[in-house]
């Protein structure tokens, strides 16, 4: 049998060489290219281990705190703590601490927001025209947020300067509705002139400057229009006498400085100082002052209940812009003695002379500079709910606008109104806000200042929400939105009902919470517990299981919502934000949410892409070998039948065919083993001797697997086959005047050997599928498709060896198709020669074979394109329109390659001669 195997290999040298080349290509390519998998595994594992861990490993929230969108998308929203106002009891927190394996359990109580007052000091001295007897300077403050797109207007401020003497109130004598002045003048207060200094006129008369009083407390509850009115007298020595001071308390000053009240709503949160220091190193982030003490509750003797750390930098996007102007002189001359309501009506209509602007950026909370107090004045606590979302057909999130009018919640506030309202609270509301029943006025003691940038560093790729220290941001998602935002991210304002809520700028202790909201409420004030698990260094399977077990135990013990955040990474979410009532147009934003389990998914699927591509080489090679071996068996059916006639048993016939292919496979494996090491050095891929030697059994296995079906066919050889003709009966050819007939004949021919046609189509489909996947990854996703920062950094990158693998797959697929067509030509050579004798020209016969190749290739290309889109969808979780276009291009390329594969078989038809075929018969 060995002699016969050797003889057959030499007699069919072209066929043996083709088998040898195919096995050599597949085996060498697989051996060398798979060497990159181990290297890639080490690189990816190292990068994941360096970046998988954020500030905490497990996030525990109150039962039901996880939103529907979070559940649906496997994410944690970046602003999730801003609307989670308690829900975890002290007992549940202690239970979390007691779970074995918990290294740190750091609680945080999002208490809400509080009103903090400050001032912007506007110096208008340089605008004073000292030659005029009377003049009026107007200040129009506008609060800007949303990168200047939203404008909150406040009431104008006025400064009245006169060269005439002014007389102040005698506060010791003034009672009821009667005002006494230091010169003995008595005046009755009215609704439109209840206070105000006296101005001595040129004729000696004394007239009230009634514009110095408010027009009416009821005129505007929100305080957006009621003006501020200051009166100064220009003294002969060039200084100014402040008319706001009463009687003998009046003083002269060199400068006129207007204090524009700036009321901000800032976040307030409570932490466990010791746990926070262990989790984030908050104690090491101080830039001044001292750290919070564990059981610190404040100094009740001074009525200071809140020891706080304040943020070094503001956490909101707010700017105050004050426009300065001077009022028409004719109106100013008529002001003394005129009722304030009349003055205000005049001021709304008068012409103004621009005098410049002053701009002030928001500041971090600080001790009151106006009253020079060491404490920070704060008032009541507001609590904001979570935003709700509608989801568009394309997956875009649309925050739902609150049904209540903006600012409605102020009706329950104890100190809002009368000019004390932050104007930005009237912007569009996306959250429900309520006022907590607390003392309307409190004092906080700022013991230290911290810089969030100095907190313990964690990987940028695996950030988890740290709303206590970092305000959320959202980038513009399209060119229009980015242009409107000035290429800057949208940041929160101090509106507690806004979509984005700022990070707390005041951090106090959990021990101080009972004195703020009461002991009963304080017992369940914790909004979240951030858990770090002990001894987590790598993200191996054992570590993942240990973290999962701890999370499960926390959930079972406490009944709270538990999210495993280790291995999370930020994932962009598209948000369509409705237009605001203060001028901001609708924006399309990209917001970064934490996608859970990204690192785990990467670890579980390290380089499956490359393994798949390399495996396709072997699959297509097996198809090629199976087709070639099957063709050899069909070509030798008479020979096999004769052997059956002389008594060869079935197993010997099967062994003969298997042995021939195995010898070729063994030879190819030995050559491949010799080439593997030097080739791996050329492409800079490590492949050792042991890995190279694997080429021998691999090549042998490929050959044997490919020979299984042909060997079974050989074993079924019947002695009667020796007498059967090789040439199939030829049907009468139809007219070939049109290309349609040739195409119809090609369609019929592809169905005559369905198994062989299917084999070639599958080979093309695999090649085109691999090509589609690689092309989409490269052009559409730029090499990465996970959609998260960590995934973009370490997963699914297209490498040069992937391109080589796809190229090898396509080459084998084209060879498989060409081999099928060539075998069809050989088996139907008599039929084709007869058609030629019946009048078919060489062109018609050439087109016939070419059409067969294109039809088989088109079927395979379409199937391969579908397979490619499926894998892209699995990798990317979505298939963009550009990916479909790339897939169509890849399918077209597959059809073109199939047409090229048919060229040589089609040209071989021209060499057919009827006389030669008849002589062979």
From TrEMBL:
InterPro entries: ABC3_permease_C, Macrolide_Exporter_MacB. The chain crosses the membrane at residues 611-633, 653-680, 692-712, 758-781, 801-823, 844-871, 883-907. Residues 612-718, 804-912 form the ABC3 transporter permease C-terminal domain. The keyword Cell membrane applies. GO terms for molecular function: transmembrane transporter activity. It holds the Pfam family FtsX. GO terms for cellular component: plasma membrane. The keyword Aminoacyl-tRNA synthetase does not apply. Its main location: membrane. Keywords: Cell membrane, Membrane, Transmembrane, Transmembrane helix. It is found in: Cell membrane. It is a multi-pass membrane protein. Belongs to the ABC-4 integral membrane protein family. This is ABC3 transporter permease C-terminal domain-containing protein. It comes from Catellatospora citrea. The lineage of its organism: Bacteria, Bacillati, Actinomycetota, Actinomycetes, Micromonosporales.
């Amino acid at each position: 049998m060995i002699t016969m195997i050797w003889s057959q290999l030499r007699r069919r040298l072209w066929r043996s060489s083709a088998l040898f080349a195919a096995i050599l290509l597949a085996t060498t390519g697989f051996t060398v290219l798979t060497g990159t998998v181990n290297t890639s595994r080490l690189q990816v594992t190292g990068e994941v281990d360096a970046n998988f861990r954020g500030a905490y490993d497990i996030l525990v929230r109150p039962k039901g705190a996880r939103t529907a969108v979070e559940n649906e998308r496997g994410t944690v929203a970046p602003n999730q703590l801003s609307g989670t106002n308690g829900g975890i009891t002290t007992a549940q927190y202690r239970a979390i601490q007691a779970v074995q394996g918990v290294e740190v359990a750091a609680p945080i109580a999002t208490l809400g927001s509080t009103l903090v007052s400050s001032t912007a000091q506007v110096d208008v001295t340089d605008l004073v025209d000292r030659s005029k007897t009377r003049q009026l300077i107007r200040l129009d403050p506008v609060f800007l947020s949303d990168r200047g797109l939203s404008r909150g207007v406040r009431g104008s401020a006025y400064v009245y300067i006169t060269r005439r003497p002014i007389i102040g109130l005698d506060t010791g004598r003034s009672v009821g509705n009667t005002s006494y002045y230091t010169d003995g003048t008595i005046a009755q207060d009215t609704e439109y002139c209840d206070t105000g200094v006296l101005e001595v006129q040129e004729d000696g008369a004394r007239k009230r400057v009634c514009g110095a009083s408010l027009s009416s407390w009821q005129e505007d509850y929100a305080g957006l229009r009621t003006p501020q009115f200051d009166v100064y007298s220009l003294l002969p020595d060039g200084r100014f006498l402040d008319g706001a001071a009463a009687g003998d308390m009046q003083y002269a000053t060199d400068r006129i400085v207007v204090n524009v009240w700036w009321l901000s709503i800032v976040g307030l949160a409570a932490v466990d100082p010791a746990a926070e220091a262990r989790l984030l190193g908050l104690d090491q982030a101080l830039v001044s002052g001292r750290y919070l003490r564990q059981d610190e509750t404040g100094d009740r003797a001074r009525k200071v209940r809140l020891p706080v750390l304040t943020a070094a930098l503001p956490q909101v996007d707010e700017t105050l812009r004050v426009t300065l102007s001077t009022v028409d002189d004719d109106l100013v001359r008529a002001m003394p003695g005129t009722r304030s309501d009349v003055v205000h009506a005049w001021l709304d209509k008068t012409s103004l002379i621009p005098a410049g602007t002053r701009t002030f950026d928001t500041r971090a909370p600080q001790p009151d500079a106006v009253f020079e107090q060491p404490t920070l004045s704060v008032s009541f606590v507001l609590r904001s709910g979570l935003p709700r979302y509608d989801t568009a057909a394309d997956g875009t999130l649309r925050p739902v606008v609150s049904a209540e009018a903006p600012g409605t919640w102020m009706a329950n506030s104890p100190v809002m109104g009368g000019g004390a309202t932050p104007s930005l609270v009237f912007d569009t509301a996306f959250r429900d806000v309520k006022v907590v029943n607390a003392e309307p006025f409190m004092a906080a003691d700022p013991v230290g200042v911290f810089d969030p940038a100095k907190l313990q560093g964690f990987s940028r790729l695996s950030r988890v929400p740290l709303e206590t220290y970092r305000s959320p941001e959202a980038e513009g998602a399209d060119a229009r939105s980015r242009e409107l935002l000035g290429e800057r991210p949208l940041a929160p304002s101090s509106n507690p009902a806004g979509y984005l809520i700022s990070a707390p700028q005041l951090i106090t202790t959990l021990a101080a919470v009972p004195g703020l909201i009461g002991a009963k409420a304080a017992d369940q004030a914790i909004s979240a517990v951030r858990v770090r698990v002990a001894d987590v260094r790598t993200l191996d399977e054992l570590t993942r299981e240990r973290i999962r077990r701890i999370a499960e135990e926390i959930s079972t013990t406490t009944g709270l919502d538990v999210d495993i955040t280790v291995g999370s990474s930020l994932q962009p979410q598209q948000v369509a934000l409705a237009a605001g009532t203060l001028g901001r147009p609708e924006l399309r934003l990209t917001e970064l949410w934490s996608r859970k389990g990204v690192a785990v998914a990467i670890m579980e699927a390290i380089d499956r892409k490359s393994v798949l591509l390399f495996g396709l080489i072997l699959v297509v090679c097996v198809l090629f070998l199976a087709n070639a071996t099957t063709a050899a068996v069909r070509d030798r059916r008479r020979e096999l039948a004769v052997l059956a006639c002389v008594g060869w048993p079935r197993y010997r016939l099967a062994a003969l065919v298997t042995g021939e292919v195995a010898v070729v496979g063994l030879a190819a494996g030995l050559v491949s083993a010799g080439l593997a090491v030097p080739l791996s050095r050329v492409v800079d891929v490590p492949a050792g001797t042991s890995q190279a030697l694997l080429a021998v059994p691999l090549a042998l296995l490929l050959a044997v697997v490919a020979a299984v079906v042909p060997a079974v066919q050989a074993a079924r050889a019947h002695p009667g086959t020796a007498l059967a003709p090789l040439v199939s009966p030829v049907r009468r050819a139809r007219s070939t005047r049109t290309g349609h007939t040739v195409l119809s004949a090609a369609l019929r021919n592809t169905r005559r050997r369905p198994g062989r046609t299917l084999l070639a189509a599958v080979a093309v489909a695999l090649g085109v599928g691999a090509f589609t996947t690689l092309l989409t990854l490269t052009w559409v996703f730029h090499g990465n498709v996970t959609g998260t920062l960590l995934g973009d950094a370490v997963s699914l990158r297209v490498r040069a060896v992937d391109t080589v693998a796809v190229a090898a797959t396509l080459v084998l697929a084209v060879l498989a198709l060409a081999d099928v067509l060539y075998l069809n030509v050989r088996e139907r050579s008599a039929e084709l020669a007869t058609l030629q004798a019946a009048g078919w020209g060489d062109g018609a016969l050439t087109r016939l074979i070419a059409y067969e190749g294109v039809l088989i290739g088109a079927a395979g290309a379409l199937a391969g394109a579908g397979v490619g889109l499926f894998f892209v969808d699995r990798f990317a979780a979505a298939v963009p329109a550009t990916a479909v276009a790339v897939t169509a291009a890849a399918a077209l390329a597959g059809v073109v390659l199939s047409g090229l594969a048919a060229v040589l078989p089609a040209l071989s038809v021209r060499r057919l001669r009827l006389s030669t075929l008849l002589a062979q018969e």
